[in-house]
Amino acid sequence: MPERIAFLHRKDVIGILILAALLLVVFPLTLDSFRLNLVGKYLTYAFVAIGLVLCWGKAGILSLGQGIFFGLGGYCMAMFLKLEASSPENTAIQTTPGIPDFMDWNQVTELPWFWEPFHSLGFSLIAVILVPVIFASIIGMAMFKRRVGGVYFAIITQAIAAILTILIVGQQGYIGGINGITDLRTLKGWDIRTDDAKFLLYFVCCFLLLGSIVLSFFVQDTKLGRILVAIRDKEDRVRFSGYDVSNYKIFVFCFAAALAAVGGAMFTLQVGFMSPSFVGIVPSIEMVIFCAVGGRLSILGAVYGALLVNFAKTALSENFPELWLFAMGALFIGVVMLFPNGLAGLWSAYVAPRIDQVLGATRRRNAITPIDPAATPGE
Amino acid sequence: MDATTSSGRKDFVLAVEGLTVSFDGFKAVNDLSFYVDENEIRVIIGPNGAGKTTVLDLICGRTKATEGSIKFRDHELTRMKEHQIVRRGVGRKFQNPSIYEDLTVFENLEISFPRGRSVWGALAFQRDAQVKERVQEIAEMVFLQNRLNERAEYLSHGEKQWLEIGMLLIQDPDLLMLDEPVAGMSVAERKKTAELLHRIIQDRSVIVIEHDMKFVEDIAHRVTVMHQGKVLAEGSMEWVKNDPKVVEVYLGH
Q: In Å, how far from its chain's centre is CA B154?
């Protein structure tokens, strides 16, 4: 294999292939459909985690509000599915047939204007990306143009996540309130609740994730990727080298938001509902933990982080439900104090050199073979 | 001082007039005026707290002026953003080496190469022969040609200073501002740096802040002595050295 294929290093290609094999072959063959659907759900968080690698790990912008974008993407998808599930035939028993059930319960008698375009699948899919990106760019412009950064930015994103949750909870008649948008049934007539549909959606999720990973590797390898690292190191030097730093920050924040939104939309499709409990402060911080555990500098590490922490979360909360929050807290403290670069950092510090050593030794032995075949008869 | 005629004259690269900046009432720079000619090497000296670094901060846009004007080739800089000032041709080196430690020497220089500075430009940027050649050329100039693939954090203090000078040179600025370029260097590094600066100050205007009098005497065309935010004296090194006011506040110590 050559040292580089376009923008991917050989070790990145191998890493992506191993992950692809795990997701596309190992999991589907070894897990039952319930567990596979769970993995699919975990993978939706991996989208958020790889966005955080670029935004937080590379550019140094810690966002504690990625739930905002995960939620906006998820809600855009859910609104389309809900409208399809609320056809006049399905909702004949309501006072006003043809509108989502929660509206009817809340004495809303007409579909609100902002729901209208979500009758169209094309519009909804575009909105999944565009709504969070526009929202992220507004936040980004308001903050980064004014040079708000560091911990202040993190706190503001957290506040926005809280505000959005409160807004959703308060507007029960318009967006479903605390229950979220539930009872989603079909996508263009195709029932998404069946095992077959979940199986297929799992693969859609995997391919989108692998695509996002490759795209992130591409961004990381451009000069833009290096400028992001430069901004983290010495923001002023970048500025005094003729770059408008705020535009770069807005870009990477929007990029991370778009990835989170795709994750959110896939979450809605696979889990079958969307609610404010995936938008607020706690889920947003959990997303940062997935990224930190996996390694905030490593795109692939973040995917494993999201998978492992969620596996642990499920296992622990199935057996010791009250322990999970403590375990999560301990995990985060442990990562920050003991291995700040996460699992990927441990891998490249301890495991990768061993593998290189072993591979290097075999390669050397193979290289010697043609010179003196008699000396190594076993080969 | 006649502001209208002087700012209208084309031969000044930089015209600073009536510049004042006040931090909570304290005037760090107070009604300062000076002019820099094409290809002039101007050295600013003065005791600590005289406002020398603040003047550079004002010119490059890091600090906003309270009053006064800074004209670079007849463009008013006081209302421009930092990156716009850089793109006009003003380069600034900071006092402490300011480089990207997590990137290699090559990448440090490449980022400073003046092309693809917009977000989309940076996404589409290609490391072509022109970039490689220019990086190589600058690296040789700043004695780092053998260290291009090393992470910048492993460079010595002096090498970091050279790298930052290289990062400025690759932009080929018309006005170069250097804040104590030989501070903290060993004797050998100092000598090499002096030699480097002699080479790079050709064909451009330079403003240098420096305390090393031997070095100042060596390079300065003209010297501006600052004290308490104002110009105390200005002229050739010979002239300011013999100014009793300068001897009293600065050189006498």
A: 25
